[in-house]
Amino acid sequence: MSNVVKKHKTAELGRPRSFDLDTALDRALRVFWRKGYEGTSLSDLTRAMRINRPSLYAAFGDKESLFRKALDRYMVRETRYWQKAIDAPTVREFVEKLLRGAAEAMSRAGSPRGCLLVQGALTCSAEAESVRRELSARRQAGEAAIRGRLKLAKKEGDLPAGADPGTLARYLTTVMQGMAVQAAGGANRTELRRVADTALKSWFGLISS
Amino acid sequence: MSNVVKKHKTAELGRPRSFDLDTALDRALRVFWRKGYEGTSLSDLTRAMRINRPSLYAAFGDKESLFRKALDRYMVRETRYWQKAIDAPTVREFVEKLLRGAAEAMSRAGSPRGCLLVQGALTCSAEAESVRRELSARRQAGEAAIRGRLKLAKKEGDLPAGADPGTLARYLTTVMQGMAVQAAGGANRTELRRVADTALKSWFGLISS
DNA sequence: TCACTTTCTGACTGATCGGTACAAAACTGA
DNA sequence: TCAGTTTTGTACCGATCAGTCAGAAAGTGA
């Protein structure tokens, strides 16, 4: 079948789209980020994206599908500091980059405050349950990534033999999620940074056992 | 005016209410706690409370008014451990009771997991904004209570002169709010307890500077 | 029994929810 | 110019939202 060739031809067929997909998705992301999945209505979305409803559905599918696309973009864009932290040579630098990166990411000027994984749907009605679970799963994946880095550190002797990577990862995750609640409540960058520094200081007490 | 006397008379006039106010309010609280303010519909409420709509409105006012009444009850009932913690003689016991009390309260069998102040409305649509702010304000009041206890400890010499009650209170609050996110995501009592113990351990590192 | 008061029940309101049908518009290749 | 294809804007869909009306029901005192 010559589907591939045909696709290239048909790609330019028909009335051209009058808006930019990336721009529109960015705008949708910002609304979901600020208001949460259920707090955002389709009217909110079309207004922010500057497109009308049928265009939204044709380009992104239904509301949940659009949210997941926005979520993917959020993960790619807003969690780069995670990889930088994980790539750090020492566990001390890892934790520092992680906590301080979170403080920055959750208080970026021009972006909604807080973390989409937390404020997207901590609770919801029955209809949005699948979205809630998706966010919960992604939070757990983040914790697993931290745990993996700590396990590596332990193997390398960068963490004492008595340290439990699972417990420590859970603790770090909890602090970061708490920072997300703080940010959602209005905490600014200075305040978040102070929390991060306090947690970092506490870290040294934890691993010196 | 003889209003007082009259009220006693009229209190027994008319058709008697066929449901118990406290029971109904408890049921409403549980729904709000589990689904959040906006995730809960009036149909959810009337079903759970086993009353119909006009009875709900007559007894509790509109949805927001009912939520605030449920919130008041939640605060009275679910944060008793706060006062016990604050009343503890030493700052060490205060922090221990606070963190462990939170772990217990957020994982009580037969109650929704997590904290209503966090999952009630971290984000919302424009209509629920006043509820979101109310919850944010109550979280901040909790932080202020912790700060007050730490200030007292500092004055008593139970905290070192270099310790900053504001920063420490913010840190403790953040950890507890993170625990609420963990609980909302399904963390059980054992896991929450482990987080609390880890934070408690970290505490000693923080105040020994 | 009967006026009076309050609650209960069920049906209803206008507004908004997420989602879609339809036809005009804007492009392509022929 | 004209068929074919895709997007556009408008107007609409049934369902559900929070909230209310009106009348029957259930109690009171006289």
Order of helices and strands of chain A: HHHHHHHHHHH
Shape of chain A: elongated
The DSSP helix count of chain A reads 11
Q: Largest contact between protein chains?
A: A-B, 50 and 50 residues
Radius of gyration of chain A: 20 Å
| Head-to-tail CA distance between termini of chain A | 65 Å
Oligomeric category = homodimer
Largest sheet of chain A: none
Beta-strand residue fraction of chain A: under 5%
Mean pLDDT of chain A: 94
The counted number of beta strands of chain A is: 0
Helix content of chain A: over 70%
Structural class of chain A: mainly alpha
Low-confidence stretches of chain A: 1-10
Give a quick precis of the structure.
The structure is a homodimer of 209-residue chains. Chain A is mainly alpha-helical and 209 residues long.
